[in-house]
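Sample pair:
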Amino acid sequence: MLTSVDTELIRVLADPLRLRIVPLLAQETLCTTHLVEETGARQTNLSNHLKVLRDAGVVETEPCGRFTYYRLCPEVIERLAGQFTALARTARATAEADLKRSCS
């Protein structure tokens, strides 16, 4: 079953721009300048979204001179994927057992 922490993570990842940022950071560690180039988003807007991702534990930062680099935390994505895998397993078992509640 999904917990309130998980639903918050889903909400964080559901934003279209944040959902574009995550796969980019899965491929390489990037700074805000790179993400502006890749997404076309304004720097201030991007920084706000990165803060949300950082606060949710999805990304971590690495200062490098006057730049800040962002890296995806794969454990967070793996945990969420595992929960959806378990949910799918339960749904498959329910379908195979033809479990359904009768209507009264």
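The CA atoms of residues 58 and 74 lie 8 Å apart.
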